[in-house]
Amino acid sequence: MQGQEARGQGTGLMGRALRGSALTAGSFAITQGLRLASNLVLTRLLFPEAFGLMALVSVVLVGLQMFSDTGVGPAISRSPRGDEPTFLDTAWTINLIRGVLLWGLTCALAWPLAMLWQAPDLVLLLPVAGVTLLIAGFNPTRIDTANRHLMLGRLTALDLVAQGVGIAAMVGLAFALQSVWALVIGAIIGSAAKLGLCWAWLPGPANRWRWERAAATELVHFGKWIFLSTVCGFLLAQGDKAILGHYLSLEALGIYNIGFFLASFPALMAQAVVSRVMIPLYRVRAEGRGETALRRARWGLTAGIVLALAVLALAGDPLVRFLYDDRYLAAGAILTAVALVQMPGIVGMTYDQSALAANDGRGYFALIAMRAGVQTAAFLAGALWAGLGGALLGQGLAAVAVHPLIIRLARRHAVWDARHDLAMAALVAGLATLVLALHGPALAGLAR
Questions:
Q1: N or C: which end of the chain has fewer CB within 10 A?
Q2: What is Dmax (Cα atoms) for the chain?
Q3: Buried (b) or exposed (e) across 169-190, using 16+ Cβ within 10 A?
Q4: Is-above-0.90 flag for pTM?
Q5: For residues 46 and 51, what is the distance between their CA atoms, to the nearest angstrom?
Q6: Residues near 144 by beta carbon (within 8 Å), at least 6 away in sequence
Q7: Are 291 and 9 in contact (CB under 8 A)?
Q8: Residue 246 CB: number of other CB atoms within 10 A?
Q9: In contact, 313 and 365? CB cutoff 8 Å
């Protein structure tokens, strides 16, 4: 009887995991499709420097978010108290305080960063764009509760509607303003739309200001490692733009951002799926259930994302020529290069969440810190040696160099799948060889 119950639970878990993965991937695909459509319109209405400015604004906003990540979402996903109203209200209170502080920091950093990057427009752009961080502080914890239970249908729909509102606002404002301000104001409208929709339509009690010491202690104890990890995660996600902001003109940075946007679609989709699905899968695996669901999720995600990156790498230049005007043609080689160097890192992308599921925040932080240190050093050294091409080569080599550390963490939590890693590494090597054979001269042109 117990065996039948376990099988039934495993089947239910597999179903929720598959539905959650499909919903997250589908939502991300639709969102990126909307972003691509709006990007094609915006590149014809705005100048390349506008996208360079927004790349710098994004570096600051994402950096502040990551440098102050309290780990509330993962804590709610894994904590035994993750459904208690007092625990959730305390988590919401922490997020609200954080949002207010982050907006204050964007105002304080605006002038120094404008001088550092020699972009005077940032003095006004950053404080206004920082309002999105303030708005996000009010988002209800019902978002995290839905993630905890892999009940993602309504949440996915609300995300799509909010993003559609923000994108429509950007396009409409671009027609009217012909200015980078269209992107900033549109982002604020999208953030406000998400807040209103989630408060109105997600099930569950409304959050209120509350502070329970035990809940805060648990959240802070777990969150301290998330905080340190996301400080390092900033270097992984935004370090390239922060470094290139010093080496490239705003126009060249804007073109790089176009190529990066196109190439990063598969990896970002994978991260969205992994962050929502893998912690619950690892949590129930520790209870003796869900082994099949976990294995299938890992193989399917890795193979699918590697193949998607390979398609983008092979189609880089013709795709950019088809989508954009002549001002952005240089983004074709960048798309190919970025897609290529992201492929090795996909092999181990599903393992680090096992540490969070096991409350091993220290192990998670140690891995992210090493990845950030190695990748940043390799990217910077490559930029000094051979410009943009060298920087991207360094990033790819860094992903290969840190994989043994990922294996070490996975083995600690008894989740390493050697057969998976060998098969996927062989797939990456074969596809990379094909890309280099077809596009080697274009990639070599990225080096100065």
A1: N
A2: 70
A3: bbbebbeeeebbbbbbbbbbbb
A4: no
A5: 8
A6: 72, 73, 76, 77, 82, 88, 91
A7: no
A8: 11
A9: no
